[in-house]
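Sequence, please.
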């Protein structure tokens, strides 16, 4: 967690902005490259925000 916001384990990358980018249609490969995340992490971000809406 970063200031109480969820992050991907072992990173300081915030989950919700990544999930929002995916929802906007940002290319998965671009996100994987920019943030050094895996396909599993990107999928987990979507699951997380669906399970824990604001």
């Amino acid at each position: 967690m970063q200031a109480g916001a969820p992050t991907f384990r072992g990173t300081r990358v915030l989950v919700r902005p990544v999930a929002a980018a995916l929802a906007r249609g940002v290319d998965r490969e671009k996100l994987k490259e920019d943030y050094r995340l895996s396909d599993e992490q990107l999928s987990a971000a979507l699951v997380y925000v669906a399970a824990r809406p604001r």
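The mean pLDDT is 94.
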